[in-house]
Amino acid sequence: MKPLFRTLGISVAALTISTAAAAKTDINQQVRAVWHQDIEAGYQNLAKQTRALAEQADSWCQEPDALNRDSVDQLWLDSFRAWQAVRFVNFGPIETDNRAWQFQFWPDPKNLIARKARYLLTSDQAPTAETIADSGVAVQGFPMAEYLLFDEQLNSTDRALPAQRTCRALVLVAGHIADNSAQQLQDWQSFEDNYVANEQYRDTTIKAGMAALEILEERRLAQPMGLRGTGKRSVYTADAWRSGQSLAAVEATVRGLQEHFLPALVLLLEGSDQPELAGRIEQQFAEVLENFPAMRTPMAPLLASDEAFARLQGLYVDISQLTTLVNDQATVALGVVRGFNSSDGD
Hints:
Blueprint: H1 2-62, H2 66-86, H3 99-103, H4 112-122, H5 129-134, H6 142-150, H7 152-155, H8 164-190, H9 192-197, H10 200-222, H11 246-260, H12 262-270, H13 276-289, H14 299-304, H15 306-334
């Protein structure tokens, strides 16, 4: 009978292993389904906000007045924040035709945005939809719209909005952003079956969140604060400096990660051998966001004053701690191989 018992033991062990593997596969699929749904909600909001911006810009340019101009500015900010909330997704449909770069050409160390804008506003031919589509990513997204709305030098000239040529450019750029947003939502919805079924997207999504935190810490905060790079404080290395919304964009990125990335990450961590990490990461997200709304202020004054700079340092420390929890500790708990530092290089 011993051989029989041995055979039965092996069979039971194999079944147990098979059942455990199936359960792991099942939870990973559930997690990817949650991620897909949460990210889709972010893309739905992006499509909604950008369409409202495009329509309001067109309406205001036809009949300009100060009140409606304020609404255009606000809708640009609402749309830009909606983009920041899903900016961490760096795979899948967003890779089509450099769509992420179309939404936001950044960093821009050579001030290509300004150079392209001057060409649009002074060339012999008035801009058309084809002009925008053919002029490259520096023309097509939020930074170009920001330039047309908020650039101080432009606003001191006779080309300031609502000048006809500038209005035309704004309407076309806003329309391009809205069209891309609608297409991105449609493409993400079509991507669902492939995303949920493919095991590689668990780690791909985690790495996308990691990269977003690294970029947030190293490029969007440390570099303008003078903690990296030249060692000199400079608001011009931040994104959205023309509108004074660099820190509002930081908040939107953190909230986007909290809403569209964190819930599924928590599910994974709760099933790992370090379930306590889930609560610690949730708490750290909350601590980062406690810096706001007080930090919804232009970055430039915070860089200019040592006393004000301390507030910025507090935000930086909180984000650094969050990055450590997610990128170092959670990745170990989930067996994610980090690879190179995704915030390095271009």
